[in-house]
Design goal:
The complex is a heterotrimer of chains A (465), B (311) and C (278). Chain A has 18 helices and 15 strands. Chain A is an alpha/beta fold. Chain C has 13 helices and no strands. Chain C folds into 2 domains: 56 residues; 210 residues, MetI-like fold, CATH 1.10.3720.
């Protein structure tokens, strides 16, 4: 390398430098191009088949069995190749992906209560035409499950499983508190009394903090509200329905029960607890005696419960005038984003993976861990145990329903705020609800771009053309 | 030389443009165009999926009618008016203590500096655990300290052991305490400033009989005022960007009871998870005006109080 | 009390308080490492036990197995290194253009650049997101890297401060000798500015390593996550599994601290020389 030297004539120096500069510039530019190329979207392999991208939120063992099914699907035909991607099923993350237009051809990362919002904004497509042209039919599902898939007289999703909520309790703790472990509370009043009897304080002194909490009333506002018989949304008038005397009554009940143990100290206690999916699970360590769970909780108990742990379960007890056997249904929904480039192939995959034959292998297996959505699969012998019969009854109960309202995300956010404001004493139930209604109505107004639907067929099981 | 200068001003027009080119392009792409389109979006209902729909000033009206706006402003000002001065005072005190010639002083400096290198997400996770109401190091420490006091018959001096991040009154103080741990960057800048204060000034004052404390108040602080001002402005700008800690610790919700719902978090929540990008753009413009007005005030006030060495 | 003994007291208390302070600052790290090595059964105990027994290296294995932290670390290094390269390259060019080259619009454009520092990032966040969306770049690393090629006002300013300390005569002589500005930039200014460039590199690298908002809105595929977003997802899935969370946090913290310790000397020198302090 010739360095600039005063003895050399300047011209040749400059020429040497010029060549070197060109080389440096070329290296810099090629580095930039390389970075641009390497940072781009992942390249896709092409093997002559139509490749569709599928996003799943299932992890761990469920992802394992899902992967096996997808491999099988890819082998079973030579038209479509499904490329799966795990997307951590964080509520926020999925919505950001849709806003960014980074959507796959098909996904199961949409929760049932979010379907209305996606549908109202045309972010996902109705499945009715595909359903009508296929061998699949909504009749494979019970009415509450069918309703879960539908919004505004269209079917937007199918699922393999269906989730529900109920209460589990620790039998040993019942015994120690002098309660009959074989007889769970039958009425709401009895339930509240049990919760009180099961709560213990450090050194038997409420000031030293909670040691065992009979039941955590905090953070379950939607489940309890629907047990109390509250409806959330009227699709015909497009108004939120929570600002009602019944809701006030419900919130007063909630506050009375939370106040028994102190709102703040309960929150501190709850935030100290260990993770559900671990041996430090607070229900299994005895820190919580009765808890709200989903049907999948049985798996957790089987994995982490200490030897001799005895547990029972019951549906949310309803107050007078409330709904018996009520539960909120939810599921991971197979949907097709509007931006999907291969909708027919996406549908074919949905039709295959949610079909009873696959559901049995995916959701039931040798020992069911979840409740299958299709009625045919629900009568599988694997589900013929007291626990699964209970779950089946709950899922098919007339008071089991999904939540369907646009801007559910904001709605939930505001409902949690109502709970916090009422329980902390910052606002009366009426004040909190009035505020919630005004805020939500003004936010939700911008979701709709067309006039309200006519009031004729809403809510019925519309037949697809 | 003078000729060269004039000549180059005429000739190097293109060269200058070429060198500065990346910034000019970036300015057009990431500032001019976005600012323009952000003004338009702030007048629209826009969810990122359907085309924006012009709705005039409705977003602005809705923001001013929304109590959440005032809550998020209040929380942000809490950080700026309490957190920033506390952290300035703390980091300046640290810098003064570390501004000594002493054996092993560089080890102390490194130890106190290191925490600020902790990535914010990791820092938040660590402090969630330290602040755990029942099993966290801090409350366990406070409880055993209280036990010790009680055994001495001084139980009335007991410190509270609150729920920290689960308690709305203590969530922001907990965030500020966490911030103090990561104050090393500010401390380092103060330290550099302190080392520029001429020793001769201190020595002269010492001969005149001024004690340590008076020397700090009358020499160090005035000489350091530009650095304090710089750090103050940085803290002030940082206060409006306060996001990651609150997002990780509250899981995005800004809880408990909206006590960690800061302006940037509220804006993010509206823009992305709630799909209200028009509304969030309007929020951004309101933020811009607030910072603009406050910056002008701060500059005007400080013009009289900040001393610049050598003019 | 005379002044001499007062000074002595200040000196002794100074040493003691420095030691106490350093311990206070080191305690969280000690607790972090201690928890990360504890068996799960030992986590929830109401008296602090600092020594894990038995020492559970298994926690690190489990953390790395449940979430691919090694892959995340590589992704993060890729983003951090490339954006550091991009920032160094673009900022030094622009700083040279403003600080060394003399041309007509230099001053007004520089003032415009300074003014942009005051613009809150939130104002441009949404439109920039939409730009990347329209380019089809959401879901790739490009939104995290490419903007760095267009320079950052703060670092340009920092480098300018440094470039200005290079004697002007040196540059003018090189010009008369017939060197182009690119020669001077590449062979004179850049080598002389190594400490300042190191500071910028360190800041850019740690900023990219720590960045959370960017990966949060631009990365969706789990395999492309960086450490920040990976750790946050880990928190939401493994909340309260403190032994794992602490192990994962340690994995994220240690590289930055090591990097700092390795370049500490250059770094401190650079901070001082670049006039960052004012």
């Amino acid at each position: 390398m010739n360095s600039p030297n005063s003895t050399k004539p300047p011209r040749s120096t400059n020429l040497g430098l010029l060549h070197l500069n060109l080389l440096i510039a070329a290296i810099l530019i090629s580095t930039i191009v390389l970075i641009y190329w390497a940072s781009g979207p992942k390249s896709r392999t092409v093997d002559g088949r139509t490749e569709i991208s599928y996003w799943t939120g299932w992890g761990g063992r469920e992802l394992e069995s899902l992967r096996k099914l997808i491999d099988e699907y890819n082998r079973s035909q030579d038209h479509t190749f499904v490329r799966w991607t795990y997307v951590a099923n964080d509520y926020n993350k999925m919505r950001i992906a849709f806003a960014g237009g980074d959507t796959p051809d098909v996904c199961s990362t949409v929760w049932a209560d979010d379907v209305a919002d996606y549908a109202e904004r045309n972010a996902i497509v109705p499945l009715d035409p595909y359903l009508a042209a296929s061998t699949r039919s909504l009749d494979e599902y019970s009415t509450p499950v069918q309703e879960l898939y539908r919004y505004n007289n269209h079917t937007y999703a199918l699922s393999t499983g269906v989730g529900s909520f109920f209460i589990m309790y620790n039998k040993q703790a019942f015994r120690e508190a002098g309660l009959d472990p074989e007889r769970p509370p039958a009425t709401l009043a009895e339930f509240d009394l049990y919760a009180e009897k099961l709560t213990k304080y450090r050194n038997d002194n409420p000031r030293d903090g909670i040691q065992v909490l009979g039941f955590a009333y905090i953070g379950q506002i939607m489940s309890w509200a629907s047990v109390w018989g509250v409806d959330f949304w009227d699709p015909n008038t497009r108004t939120v329905l929570v600002d009602t005397p019944r809701m006030v009554e419900f919130l007063e009940w909630l506050k009375t029960n939370v106040d028994k143990y102190g709102y703040r100290s309960q929150r501190g206690f709850l935030s100290s607890l260990g993770n559900t999916v671990s041996p430090n699970n607070p229900f299994l360590t005895g820190q919580l005696t009765m808890i709200v769970v989903g049907e999948w909780y049985k798996k957790i108990i089987e994995m982490y419960a200490p030897p001799g742990f005895e547990w029972g379960y019951f549906a949310f007890p309803a107050p007078p005038g409330g709904r018996a056997n009520a539960t909120i249904l939810n599921a991971s929904m197979f949907t097709i984003p509007t931006a999907s480039r291969h909708k027919q192939e996406a549908w074919d995959f949905i039709a295959w993976i949610t079909a009873p034959a696959q559901t049995i292998r995916f959701r039931v297996g040798p020992l069911p861990g979840d409740m299958a959505a299709a009625s045919a699969v629900q009568s599988d012998p694997g589900y013929d145990t007291p626990y699964w019969r209970f779950v089946k009854d709950l899922v098919n109960s007339p008071n089991a329903r999904g939540i369907k309202l646009p801007l559910f995300n904001k709605f939930m956010y505001l409902m949690n705020q109502v709970e916090e404001r009422v329980l902390s004493g910052e606002a009366t139930p009426q004040q909190a609800l009035t505020h919630m209604r005004t805020t939500f109505q003004s936010s939700v107004a911008e979701v709709f771009r067309d006039p309200p639907p006519t009031t004729t067929t809403s809510g019925s099981q519309g037949v697809t053309p | 030389m003078l000729r060269l200068k004039r000549q180059s001003i005429d000739n190097e027009y293109l060269t200058g443009l070429l060198f500065v080119g990346p910034w000019i392009l970036g300015f057009l792409l990431w500032v001019v165009y976005p600012v323009g389109s952000s003004i338009y979006l702030s007048l629209c209902a826009y969810d990122g999926m359907r085309p924006p729909q012009f709705i005039g000033l409705q977003n602005y009206r809705a923001i001013f009618a929304d109590p959440e706006f005032y809550v998020s402003l209040k929380n942000t000002f809490y950080i700026i008016l309490i957190g920033v001065p506390v952290s300035l005072f703390f980091s300046l005190s640290l810098a003064m203590m570390l501004n000594q010639r002493r054996r092993g002083i560089s080890i102390y400096r490194t130890l106190i500096y290191l925490p600020c290198l902790t990535p914010v997400v990791a820092m938040s996770v660590l402090w969630m655990w330290l602040f755990n109401p029942d099993y966290g190091l801090i409350n366990v420490g406070i409880r055993s300290f209280n036990g010790w006091l009680t055994s001495l018959g001084l139980g009335f001096l007991s410190l509270p052991a609150p729920g920290w991040f689960s308690d709305p009154t203590w969530a922001k103080p907990a965030l500020i305490i966490m911030g103090l741990w990561g104050v090393g960057g500010t401390m380092l800048i103060f330290l550099a400033g302190l080392q520029d204060v001429p020793r001769s000034l201190h020595e002269a004052a010492e001969i005149d009989g001024a004690g340590w404390w008076r020397r700090q108040v009358h020499i160090t602080l005035p000489m350091l005022s530009p650095v304090i001002f710089y750090n103050g402005i940085m803290g002030f700008i940082g206060g409006f960007q306060y996001f990651t800690q609150a997002y990780v610790i509250s899981g995005g919700g800004g809880g408990p009871e909206q006590s960690t719902l800061f302006y940037a978090l509220s804006l993010f929540n509206n823009a992305f998870p709630h799909w209200r990008m028009g509304y969030a753009s309007a929020q951004a413009w309101i933020l811009f005006f607030i910072t603009l007005v406050l910056t002008l005030i701060v500059f005007r006030v400080s013009a009289r109080r900040v001393y610049y060495q050598g003019g | 009390m005379n002044r001499r003994s007062a000074d002595a007291i200040v000196s002794v208390t100074g040493h003691a308080s420095l030691l106490a302070l350093s311990i206070v600052f080191a305690l969280p790290f000690a607790w972090l490492v201690s928890t990360s090595l504890k068996p799960p059964a030992q986590i929830f105990s109401s008296s602090p036990n600092w020594l894990p027994s038995p020492v559970c290296w298994q926690n690190y294995v489990e953390a790395v197995n449940t979430i691919p932290f090694i892959r995340y670390a590589w992704n993060t290094i890729f983003v951090a290194l490339t954006s550091t390269f991009a920032t160094l390259f673009s900022c030094s060019l622009v700083a040279y253009g403003f600080a060394v080259v003399r041309w007509r619009w230099s001053r007004p454009l520089f003032l415009v650049m300074l003014a942009t520092v005051m613009l809150p990032g939130q104002v441009t966040m949404i439109p920039v997101f939409i730009i990347f969306k329209n380019l089809g770049w959401v879901g790739s690393y490009r939104p995290l890297i490419i903007p760095a090629f267009f320079s950052t006002a703060f670092f340009v300013f920092l480098l300018m401060q440094f470039f200005r300390t290079i004697p002007r005569d040196l540059i003018d002589v090189a010009r008369i000798d017939g060197c182009s500005h690119f020669d001077i930039y590449w062979r004179l200014v850049l080598p002389l500015s190594r400490p300042a460039l190191m500071v910028v590199a360190f800041f850019t690298f740690t900023a990219a390593w720590n960045d959370f908002l960017g990966p949060l809105i631009y990365l969706n595929d789990d395999r492309m996550y960086t450490l920040s977003i990976g750790l946050q997802q880990f928190v939401s899935q493994h909340a309260a599994e403190w032994h794992l969370l602490m192990a994962a946090s340690t994995i994220m913290i240690v590289p930055v601290i090591l990097l700092f310790l390795f370049m500490q000397k250059t770094f401190v020198e650079g901070i001082h020389l670049s006039g960052l302090k004012a």
